[in-house]
Amino acid sequence: PIPRRGPQMQSGHADLQTMKYLTLILWGVALSSALIPGLLTWYMLCTDSLPRDVCIGRLQSFSLSLQPEAASRTIQRLTPMEHVSHSSSEVSFPELHPHNNLTFTINPKIATAEVLIAVVSDWNTFTSDLGHASRDGWARFLLTRKKHTYHVIYFVGRCPELITKAMYHVDGHYMYCLNTTDDYPPQNKVFAAWKYLFLYHAARYRWFVKVDQDTYVNARNMDALVDALRPFTSSVQYIGKPFFGRQSEAKKLGLQGKSYCSGMSYIISRPALLAVGPRLDYCLTHVVSNHSDTEFGRCMFGATGVDCRAISPDYKIRNMYFSRSGASVIPLQLSNGRSHVAVSETPLLPDFRAVFLHAIKDGTQMTQFHKQVVQQLRPLQIFPDAAHAPELNSLYHQAQRDFRQTCVNNPTLQRLRNRVELPECMAPVVDGYEASEPVVSYAYILARSEDADSEARVSVLAETLRYLYIKSDVV
């Protein structure tokens, strides 16, 4: 016989129904907790009529910020330049630049590296002697380093009509046209460059360095700095030369007592880029000044609660406030808010010890300084004498302090020539790059026999070369 439903069975059936309802409720809560944040994230990052690939780039960077440990795996899966649908090809625009051998490869493949250096420039400077000296000098030197891997991207605001908004490969480096203004201060250009890096390159690099076109990057010192930064790779870092603004306008910058990094060079970590990236558009529409470096500092603090942290004293960011010519000191000149100072032919040791040296405005001077860095030449020095310009006593005192920290390659010749003793520098460090550009060790002296005093002058020259440990022959 079939038993009738008794009170106990009815109670058990009710409990079963209750369990089903509770299970459905729990599944609903679980799904909503998973979907709602995702929908909110999509709404925040992708509801401003952006293309699908840009939204995907934003969401990938956002997901990496939530799961830093997955970043290294994601790097391997990303397709280089996935936001570009064009195929790679070479184009040349000889009428647009003075260097006829400059070839542009559009939409190149981009691999991964440890450090990306973003150089903020403009078309005229990029194609000038200064731009060529930068690409062929310190930027090429960086690519030869074996200890760490680097990429350099030059960001240009407004390009000629023939240049489309795409990535180009030029002189072994990358150039990207931002299609924005080249006004100074370069506020729009700097924010556009950071936005591009956030959308498309946040997963490819561990550190991001922003420098101006007239900043020299010392590759050897950069290696040492990257070594020192290694323990901080997974944390939010905003590192540079802290400033609080000029006294006359500090209260108008909206910094609220927080520091910003000088725009000539600063470094941020990948977690910092992932945090500040989604906020860049908001920051650019809520600026309180026309400065680029202060506004980026405000944006970084708003996104992370971190303001600019000073770089270690062992890894200096050096801004040149004076130049030297013989025993004279020449002060820096300001024009339209930009600094102008010539690089001395005999740089002092603090210049060589800096990771970033600013500002070198002339291509010839940048090439000259780069050769001195690569070949580790430490030229003879003349003591800065304040008697030449008593009104510049403070600058002379600074120059004298730098002088006392300096060493030379030949202390004997320094003492004989300039009557001032300086210590001998350490022996040059040889690496793969120097093998192709060795320090000079042999010279030929070309003498004209018809000159009456030729023999005496050749003798003096040979003696000078001997003091520099350079053997010579007369031909």
Detailed description of the structure:
α1 packs across α2 (52-66). The protein has a 10-stranded mixed sheet, sandwiched between helices. It has a 3-stranded mixed sheet with strand order 8-19-14. The chain is an alpha/beta fold and 475 residues long. α15 links the parallel β20 (442-445) and β21 (471-474). It has 15 helices and 21 strands.
Question: Key terms for this structure?
Answer:
single chain; alpha/beta; ten-stranded mixed β-sheet; disordered N terminus; three-stranded mixed β-sheet; 475 residues; 21 strands
Instruction: Give me the Rg, rounded.
Output: 30 Å
Number of strands: 21
Strand content: 15-25%
Label the overall shape: elongated
Which structural class is indicated by helix and strand composition? alpha/beta
**Helicity level:** 25-40%
Count of DSSP helices?
15
Q: Give a quick account of the main beta sheet: strands, pairing sense, barrel closure.
A: 10 strands, mixed
Strand neighbour order, sheet with most strands:
1-2-5-6-4-3-7-12-9-13
